[in-house]
Design goal:
Helices cover about 25% and strands about 25% of the residues. The chain is built from 12 helices and 21 strands. Helix 1 runs antiparallel to helix 2. It binds zinc ion.
């Protein structure tokens, strides 16, 4: 019986996989593993060649700040899926499942990502409805796939910031798609400040399932304007709670240093309302940019695990390797708290180019004048789709980690340790912080 279900799922998924234009074998393997899990009656993966789960193995036995958890497991109760986006661009699209409640935070990184993310979510969304849709801010890499996704799924409650500096066609199309959900599908649309203030029917805290809540976290820029779109990011805290234990999962979109500082200033611990918990999972701010995930925030939330949603090491924004996502500065800061850092995608190939090869082209901002730079092309899975999940067992909360490609930590990845020669100096792609030695 179970075998038949799995074969059917594999065939269905191979059909899906073949219809995708840019889908490598690892994508398909990831889909198959995920569907096998979904079609199984078990709460963890035992089929499809995935290693047998070992629930008593800690993810990070050597580090005191780590959760006691298990690899290669997806628990049913609560799941956060950091989806790989099917291209070589940084971006966010995070699908969250709490019981029957489905949530989508952002729809990056390009409109074409919907070819990857829609079939992925269709494995899990049973009633074609996303009860919550959140657009953290208006940048392309967070919103472009919303119109296509909302042609497939209906939205229940839509949350975004009242402010945006964006006037792009992608932003306008997103607003049109949101309005269409309100006009034709009965969706409710709220601004994050309304949620925070519990105004006009919006709520700061939503009970998603018996164990899970979603809280809209304070951001100064819900009420104040910024020249930096990233600071408008809607911030969310998911909490999985039993009578005796709780786990926290925190997402801040692309919030920049000013926003993190205001947030840290607000959450000074003086009252319950102004207290942020230590978190079991933090989505790296702004794809692991050097300007986000600053100490002021990390010192409060003390993350035990971190997922970076980006295409590792690409030259999308700069040719300077240390500033390519995830940046050396981000790595140096997160390393104080955890070595459990995972990244969704990575470039396929890279070359070291000279300034002459670059010529006078201005298409690679940030390349040092006269210096070598890293040029990348293509993409493939790094950890792949990263899924963090929970279940309660005898009042203890278990955490599962499952990566569709592999569960190699960033510090142990081939990319991190690749030795390159830049301007005559031999160096690894990233220097290992002392805590990661
Ligand atoms: Zn972004």
């Amino acid at each position: 019986m179970k075998f038949k279900k799995i074969i059917f799922s594999c065939l269905a998924v191979l059909g899906l996989g073949m219809s995708l234009t840019s889908c490598d074998i690892n994508d398909i393997k990831g889909f198959i593993k995920d569907v096998v899990d979904e079609s199984s009656d078990d709460s963890y993966i035992t089929e499809g060649g995935v290693p047998t789960p070992t629930p008593t193995d800690p993810i990070n036995p050597g580090n005191n700040n780590q959760p006691v958890s298990a690899d290669n497991i997806i628990y049913d109760d609560f799941q956060i899926h950091f989806m790989a986006l099917g291209n070589d661009k940084a971006g966010d699209s995070v699908y969250i499942k709490a019981g029957d409640t489905d949530i989508l935070i952002d729809a990056g990184s390009r409109s074409g990502s919907s070819a990857t993310t829609i079939p992925y979510m269709q494995q899990y969304v049973k009633d074609n409805k996303l009860e919550f849709v959140i657009a953290t801010h208006g940048d392309q890499d967070h919103i472009e796939a919303f119109p296509k996704i909302l042609e497939t799924f209906d939205a229940g409650i839509i949350i975004r910031n009242q402010y945006s500096n964006k006037t792009t066609s992608g932003f306008t199309k997103m607003l049109t798609a949101f309005q269409s959900q309100v006009d034709n599908k009965g969706a409710k649309a709220y601004f994050a400040n309304e949620c925070y203030d519990n105004e006009n029917g919006a709520q700061r805290i939503y009970q998603l399932s018996d164990n899970v809540t979603m809280e809209i976290i304070y951001n100064y820029y819900y009420w104040n304007t910024s020249s930096d779109e990233n600071n408008y990011s809607v911030c969310t805290m998911f909490t999985y709670k039993t009578d005796t234990d709780e786990k926290h999962f925190f997402l801040t979109g692309d919030l920049e240093k000013e926003g993190e500082e205001k947030l840290a200033e607000f959450y000074d611990g003086s009252t319950d309302e102004k207290t942020l918990p230590e978190v079991d999972l933090f989505k790296a701010g702004h794809h692991g940019s050097k300007t986000s995930s600053n100490d002021c925030l990390l010192d409060i939330i003390k993350p035990k695990m971190c997922v970076v949603s980006c295409c590792c090491g690409t030259d999308e924004y700069t040719g300077i390797t240390d500033n390519q996502f995830p940046t050396q500065a981000f790595i140096d800061r997160i390393a104080k708290w955890t070595d459990a850092v995972y990244v969704t995608s990575i470039y396929d190939t890279f070359t070291i180019e000279t300034a002459q090869a670059k010529g006078n082209s201005s298409d690679k901002t940030g390349v040092a004048v006269g210096g070598n730079y890293i040029h990348t092309s293509g993409f493939k899975m790094m950890n792949g789709n990263v899924i963090v999940s929970c279940k309660a067992e005898d009042d203890e909360i278990k955490l599962g980690l499952y990566c569709s490609n592999n569960s190699t930590k960033l510090k142990d990845s081939e990319w991190f340790n690749t030795v390159i020669t830049l301007d005559g100096v031999e160096r690894p792609m990233r220097n290992k912080p002392s805590n990661w030695q």
